[in-house]
Write a structure and sequence with these properties.
It is built from 3 helices and 4 strands, in the order βαββααβ. With 103 residues, it is of the alpha+beta class. It has one domain: Dimeric alpha+beta barrel (Alpha-Beta Plaits), CATH 3.30.70.1060. It has a 4-stranded antiparallel β-sheet with strand order 2-3-1-4. The chain is globular.
Amino acid sequence: MGRYFAIFATDRPNMRDVRERVRPTHRTYLRGASRHGVFVRLGGPTLAPQGDAMNGTLLVVEADGINDVMRFIENDPYMQTGLFERVEVRPWDWSMGNPEHRI
């Protein structure tokens, strides 16, 4: 397999209803990520400072290259519905906590 990538996505304001409606489809899509050559290693929603509302997404994926990750993100149901205001993808060196590299 390739390398790890961290994906940081921030929701547009006032999109809570969209997030809740699309969430089951989004989660199903993530579970089938390997069909796209992308493997979700960890992920979940980010939360507002009070911890009472989802306001974005954080994923760590493994893929051969950033182009695979970008295609995967573009087809995510959250992206398709316009939920995200901003998405950032960064190659990531998973050192601490990586189950394959216990220290």
